[in-house]
Design a protein that fits this description.
By secondary structure, the chain is mainly alpha-helical. It is built from nine helices and two strands, in the order αααβααααβαα. It folds into two domains: 59 residues; 201 residues, no CATH class. The protein has a two-stranded antiparallel ribbon with strand order 1-2.
Length: 263
C-alpha cells in the first residue's frame, strides 16, 4: 500500500468516524451540544486532513468559492425545496391527505431555525464525506458514471441507521445519491449539491413534522412517490445542467475556448 492510498484511507476513516459520532448523539442520545461539538471537530479535521494530504484546506473537497458559487448554492436550495415539496404534494393528493393545515409563522420559526442549523452541519459534512472527499481522490481516475455510482453507493451505506427500513428507503437513498452527485460532476463544485441537500432536508422536516394533514387511504407510500420524482429529475439534470453557464466547470470553459480559437 503506497503512501497516497494510506493517507486517503486514514483521512476517510477519521471523517467517517467523526460524522457518525455526531449522528449518534442526535439519533441515539439526542444531545445537541455533543452533536455540534463533534461536527466542529469534523470540519477542523477535514481542513487538517486536506493540509496533511498536500492540499490548500477545506476547499480541496470541491468547496472552492469560484465565480458563480453563490448562484449555484441558491439554485441548489430552490431545487431541493421543489423536489421535496413536489413529492409531498403528489403523495398527499394520491393518498387523499388534503387539505393541509399550515401552522402559524410564529410557531415554526424556532423549530425551523434549530433544525435548519443542525441539518446544515450534518448535510454539509455528509456532502464532504460521501462526495467532495471522493471527488478529489477518485474522480480524476475514473469515468463520471462510475464516480456517480460509487458516490451514490457510499451515500446509501453511510445511512447505517436506515438500511433496515426496507427496499423503498434503500431505493430512494441510492437514487438521491445519484442526483446529488450529478451537479458535482458537471460543475466540479459542491455548492449546488449542498444547497439542494440542506433545503431538501429542511423541507422534509417542515412537511413531516410541522404540517397537519388529514388521515388518508395511504394507497402509495411517500417513499415510492419520492423515488418516482427523483427518477424524473435525473434525466432533467443530465440534459440541462451541462447547458447552464454557471454550472459548467472552469476546465470545460477553458477547453471550449481553446477549441474555438483553433477552428
Amino acid at each position: 500500500m503506497n503512501n497516497k492510498v494510506l493517507k486517503f484511507l486514514v483521512g476517510f476513516l477519521v471523517l467517517f468516524g467523526l460524522y457518525h459520532a455526531a449522528e449518534y448523539f442526535v439519533i441515539k442520545r439526542y444531545n445537541a451540544g455533543y452533536f455540534v461539538l463533534i461536527q466542529s471537530f469534523f470540519f477542523a479535521a477535514s481542513w487538517l486532513i486536506a493540509k496533511w494530504q498536500g492540499f490548500r484546506g477545506i476547499s480541496a473537497w470541491a468547496l472552492k468559492p469560484t465565480k458563480g458559487w453563490f448562484l449555484q448554492w441558491v439554485c441548489g436550495m430552490a431545487t431541493g425545496i421543489l423536489l421535496y415539496s413536489l413529492s409531498f404534494y403528489i403523495a398527499a393528493v394520491v393518498n387523499g391527505n388534503l387539505p393541509v393545515i399550515f401552522p402559524t409563522l410564529r410557531s415554526v420559526i424556532k423549530p425551523l431555525a434549530l433544525f435548519g442549523f443542525g441539518t446544515f452541519l450534518s448535510s454539509l459534512s455528509e456532502d464532504i464525506l460521501t462526495r467532495g472527499y471522493l471527488f478529489r481522490h477518485i474522480r480524476p481516475k475514473v469515468p463520471s458514471g462510475l464516480f456517480i455510482f460509487v458516490s451514490a453507493a457510499l451515500y446509501l451505506f453511510n445511512h447505517i441507521y436506515r438500511l433496515a427500513d426496507g427496499m423503498n428507503a434503500i431505493g430512494y437513498l441510492f437514487l438521491l445519491g445519484i442526483l446529488f452527485a450529478m451537479p458535482l460532476v458537471y460543475s466540479e463544485r459542491l455548492w449546488f449539491t449542498t444547497g439542494m441537500h440542506w433545503m431538501g432536508n429542511l423541507t422534509f422536516y417542515f412537511s413531516a413534522n410541522l404540517l397537519k394533514i388529514n388521515a388518508g387511504d395511504n394507497l402509495v407510500q411517500p417513499n415510492t412517490v419520492f423515488i418516482i420524482c427523483i427518477l424524473f429529475m435525473i434525466p432533467i439534470f443530465y440534459l440541462l445542467l451541462p447547458k447552464i453557464p454557471f454550472m459548467r466547470s472552469q476546465e470545460s470553459i477553458v477547453i471550449e475556448a481553446i477549441k474555438q480559437q483553433t477552428r
